[in-house]
Amino acid sequence: MGKLRLQKMPPHGHAHSPKKAEKCDKPPLDVIKLKRRASYVGALVNILQTCLKITFGILGHSAALVADGIHSLSDLLSDALVITAVRMGSREADTDHPYGHRRFETIAAVILGASLVIIGAGMGWSVYERMQSPEKLPVPNEIGLAITAVSILLNEWLYHYTKRIAKITRSKLLLANAWHQRSDAFSSIVVLIGIGAVMLGYPLADAMAAIVVALMVIKIGVNLIIEGIKELVDTALPETLVAEIRTAIFDIDGVEDIHLLRTRYMGEDALIDAHIIVDPRISVSEGHRIGDMVRDELIARFDDVMDVLVHVDPENDELLASHIKPLTRAHVQALLTENLPELLPYLEDFRIHYLDHKIEIELIIPFALTVQAEFITRIHEKLAALEQNVPQIDTILLFFKYDCVNDCPQLH
């Protein structure tokens, strides 16, 4: 049971919350352009490689080069997937997708990872067949060597170009496509080694190199699949980054504690849900302003953070459990009407604080009533009885509002 306290309350004004800094749900236009440009450049390079490999593979009598050309042709399907995913992922948030469409890119990255695994397995199977039938090794041909070397250079350049844009735009899909393009370079290296080894008299050398390359390609694909699935199941941000976010929240003036912090990725962006604890007796507008400060600071400090949902709590209610329902404002109004009818004409306002499954009530009346000692004594007794009889009430505080204009005649 708390004690009844009589306190004088000075007049106060209303705080105005400044406009929050917003991050657009839609990626900036230049980021979209960069993603599309990288996708179109990759498609054009693959078209060029397909034409060169198949044409000179036929002219140079190299079955391996023709097969590698067909491999490049199949990459155009991946490029089409990337272009489609970038276009869908860059659309604005809507009613059905309030968090945006960025996970279309994540799904596409998982598909690309799966394709790398399939490509690696296919390369391994091809090597196995060659080892069973050495006569199937490619016939040495200078034209084949030259075109294969050009293909390696093109794919390696395309890998670095796409990877650079992937880092600028923080796109996991483009990064996956970059590794896909490097796998094509690995495939061409296998062809180059195979042709060169046969020319030097080592017919099985390309088989050994191809096995190593196939395992590398499979490993890259598996990593991309794992990372994509982690995002799709809302895996948290890395622990070091979460620790930095927690520290940044604690640095905000007015934040007393954090009792729940959840993070997840949405495409290349991060989303944060934070429950902060503030002084339970500050105003709603001040608590809201502290929440705005937390949101704005995290968005400004961390590039990956797109949006922050801040829940303001007066206490750590995560572990609290009670079967007693707290009183609502309507219930408190009914109790005051029933038990303190003589106070209602003077009651300017009342506030409720919900703490530890109980409530504290603040009653605000004019300062002029302090001269009526008998009246205040009677109100004091009734409030004490109300505290005693209603288990949900912890404390009732009586505030006297002091108006300098009306209560200080000498100022007129």
Tell me the layout of helices and strands.
Layout: E1 5-9, H1 29-59, H2 63-89, H3 103-132, H4 142-169, H5 172-200, H6 205-232, H7 239-250, E2 257-266, E3 269-277, H8 284-301, E4 305-313, H9 329-339, E5 349-355, E6 358-366, H10 373-389, E7 393-401, H11 404-407
Parallel strand pairs: 1-7, 3-4, 6-7
Antiparallel strand pairs: 2-3, 5-6
Helix pairs in contact: 1-2, 1-4, 2-3, 2-5, 3-5, 3-6, 4-5, 5-6
Per CATH, the architecture of the largest domain is Up-down Bundle
Mean pLDDT: 76
What oligomerization state is this entry in? single chain
**Residues in helices, as a percent range:** 55-70%
| Coarse morphology | rod-shaped
**Main sheet: which strands, in order across?**
1-7-6-5
Tags for this model:
412 residues; alpha/beta; Alpha-lytic protease prodomain-like; Alpha-Beta Plaits; 3 domains; 4-stranded mixed sheet; 3-stranded mixed sheet; 7 strands; 57% helix; 14% strand; rod-shaped
